[in-house]
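# nightly structure sweep
# worker-07 picked up a monomer target from the shared queue
# config: single-sequence mode, recycle default, output format = structure tokens
# input follows
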Amino acid sequence: MKRIGVLTSGGDAPGMNAAIRAVVRMALSKNMEVYGIQKGYAGLLKGLFTPMNARSVSNILHSGGTVLQSSRCPEFREEAGVKKGVEMARSQGIEGLVVIGGDGSFRGARDLSLAGLPTVGVPATIDNDIACTDTTIGFDTALNTVKDAIDKIRDTAHSHERCSIIEVMGRGAGYIAAYVAIACGAEASIIPEKPFDFDKDILQRIIDGKKRGKENNLFVVAEGVGGSVEMARRIEEATGIETRAAILGHIQRGGSPTVNDRMLASRFGIHAVELLYQDKGNRVVAIKDNVIVDYDILEGLAMEKRMRDDIMGMAEILSM
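# output follows
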């Protein structure tokens, strides 16, 4: 291939810029031209193409968000939208595409590949819910952002002997909640993957802790379970302990990416370009046991990601 495109799609994640940078500079090292596509698939359909060079991606490595911007594009879910996307890319001489995003973005990448435009997916989502890879761009940064927030909340909870309910992102997956619950010493994480009993898993833990002299409590709730404000109300009514809910929201998506996310994004971006250089499309890049690999997108999307038993077991032991 002589000319490729790169876009970011779906929710933004810290480290996307590092991936864009890696794609551009790896492609240039292979004497390939690179076009950045603004605003995701919507920009592809509107022809928002910008030629990029090494200077185009200078000083973006440390920035959160995405310099190419992102958007949702319902039109791209239709066959006509995909066909138009291929036509727009070909009108600019683009022979292959790198799509940086989550599983929804990869469905678009799959459709483009099947329609004749070789496309490679790069996993970037703070939820870490893509089954074919051990971790995704943005997950580590989001964990550290949540950790910092919870540490601050715990300081004031300890001062006032409060119970804190922290709601974090994770609509269909509880990875953020499960990991930070361990890292921040929470009594429990309430996640979509594991049914919970309010009386047993929350109230009883608070009561048992109080008998042992525990003066404050912390629970982490994934947004896919939700109801943190109502949980706080019920805890305070049942125990008499002052309880506060904090919904962390979109602060988890922003911020400067960690070293781990910058490295991961760089490795992913380089591998994605190498695949296109070899005229390979319909692939998704992944990391397994710290080795960069790739899968057929259809195979990757068909995989099911389960919460690891050792993580759940660790959380149970350490919350005693």
